[in-house]
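Fold it.
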Amino acid sequence: MIKEINKRVTRNRLTIEIETKLKKFFSHKRKVLTDEEVFAIANEDHEVVKLVSRPGYEVGNYTNSNTKQRGVWIFEIKVKKPSTKTSLRGKISKIAKDLNATSNEQE
């Protein structure tokens, strides 16, 4: 049903644009994308906090006065901050430098 998904991240906002395929035959079932399905797509790569904006119409595999094939959802995501912890090797190197400095001062 989904033809194309475009994801863009700006600061703490994730914008997802989804385009659906048009059903070919009348006998095919009508399918509409729900917010839960789009929320699951957004949670695959990012940690979503909340839904900020959604299309004012339904997005599905058919066209109607209230249904279109393309929609844009905007989510607020949790930004991962880089770790500021030093590595074990870095700590040991710092201790070794301090020990060498103190032993050189004592001589």
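The chain has a mean pLDDT of 89.
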